[in-house]
Amino acid sequence: MHTITLNNGVEMPALGLGVFQSPPEETVGAVTAALETGYRLIDTAAAYGNEREVGQALRESELTREEYFVETKVWIDDYGHEATLHAFDKSAGKLGLDVIDLFILHQPLPTRFDLTVEAYKALERLLAEGRVRAIGVSNFSPEHLEHLIARTDVVPAVNQSELHPYFTQPDVQRADAAHGTLTQAWSPIGGITFYPGWGEDRVNVMDDPTIARIASAHGRTPAQVMLRWHLQQGRSAIPKSVKQHRIQENFDVFDFELTADELASIDTLDQGIRRGPEPAGLTLETAGIRFPET
After folding, report:
1. What is the 3-state secondary structure (H, E, C) of the chain?
2. Binning pLDDT at 50, 70 and 90, where does residue 276 land?
3. CA atoms of 159 and 79, how far apart (whole Å)
4. CA distances for 258 relative to 98, 145, 230, 235, angstroms
5. For residue 70, which of 46, 93, 99, 48 has the smallest C-alpha distance?
6. 34: which of 19, 41, 140, 286 is 20 to 30 A away, CA to CA?
7. Stretch 117-143: mean pLDDT, rounded?
8. How far is CA 235 from CA 14, 59, 84, 212, 291, in A?
9. Active site residues
10. What average pLDDT is seen over the chain?
11. In order of start, what are the domains of the chain with their CATH numbers?
12. Opening angle at CA 95, ends 91 and 97, nearest 5
């Protein structure tokens, strides 16, 4: 397993299983299959509604606590110092964990950035108390990252963002690198370009001819090529699947290497079009979600 050392010295597996849009009834099986395949990083979130199922799969595995790495996210409804501390209690209870490896803010909240800052300060407190091992953010633009760092003490260890060959976010990657923050790709194989329910006029990065050519040259699948692209460029990636054969396929990426020219050719595919929701446009009024207690 390839690991990445975060800016506070914590080692995190570079490749993990994401459970975004994984129905709760399918999440236990997906996480179990991932752990049996060799994954040791599982990414979830309060907003996904499947933290309990992730926790169940972890408890039912034969792995010790030290053998796996769990990250989850606080949704905007739970921003604010005390609310975020309580959000930790809710997530930890559902996961069945005393310590969460990586705890991150799910979105910036530009209309109430004061709450975003207070939420992050709560993460800093949890870190100081040893209740989390690392803290970070998700979907933060360079501007939001700069504003947060200017008003807090701990530089985020991770910034999780939509990132795939059709949307590479070079400005985000540069800003993250400048601060020593790891860029972690959600939708790393472009699932957001073909997930149902995300609008019309979709394009499927899996069908891209450049990626198909590179995959053919290596005897690999397009998904494996994209994941290798992330790993070789120093990013973390959390592909999502509930299908066992896809989970296994996505993990089989550690025994081949893309050339510099191949990496560069994938970089040129960027269309600069966000396929997921615009993070800066989310507000408490339009994107509020209330979560049950543990």
Report:
1. CCEEECCCCCEEECECEECCCCCHHHHHHHHHHHHHHCCCEEECCHHHCCHHHHHHHHHHCCCCHHHCEEEEEECHHHCCHHHHHHHHHHHHHHHCCCCEEEEEECCCCHHHHHHHHHHHHHHHHHHHCCCEEEEEEECCCHHHHHHHHHHCCCCCCEEEEECECCECCHHHHHHHHHHCCEEEEECCCCHHHCCCCCCCCCCCHHHCHHHHHHHHHHCCCHHHHHHHHHHHCCCEECCECCCHHHHHHHHCCCCCCCCHHHHHHHHCCCCCCCCCCCHHHCCHHHHCCCCCCC
2. confident
3. 17
4. 40, 31, 11, 15
5. 99
6. 140
7. 98
8. 7, 28, 27, 22, 31
9. 48
10. 95
11. 12-274 (3.20.20.100)
12. 95
Which tokens in the block code for residue 160?
Answer: 């999780």
Spatial distance between the Cα atoms of 228 and 244, rounded to a whole number of angstroms: 20
Residue with tokens 């059709």: 166
Question: The tokens 């989850």 sit on which residue?
Answer: 72
Structure tokens at 289: 């979600």
Contacts of 199 (CB under 8 A, 6+ apart): none
Tokens linked to 90: 């809710």
Which tokens in the block code for residue 179? 């601060």
Radius of gyration of the chain (CA): 18
Residue whose entry in the numeric block shows the structure tokens 């200017």:
150
CA–CA separation, 48 and 61 (whole Å) = 21
pTM: 0.95
Query: What is the spatial distance between Cα 126 and Cα 130, in angstroms, rounded to a whole number?
Result: 6
Residue with tokens 């570079």: 14
**Distance from C-alpha of 80 to C-alpha of 114, rounded to nearest angstrom:** 8
Q: What is the pLDDT of residues 42-80, one digit of tens each?
A: 999 999 999 999 999 999 999 999 999 999 999 999 999
Angle between helix 244-251 and helix 24-37 axes, rounded to 10 deg: 40
Write the single-letter amino acid at 179. Answer: H
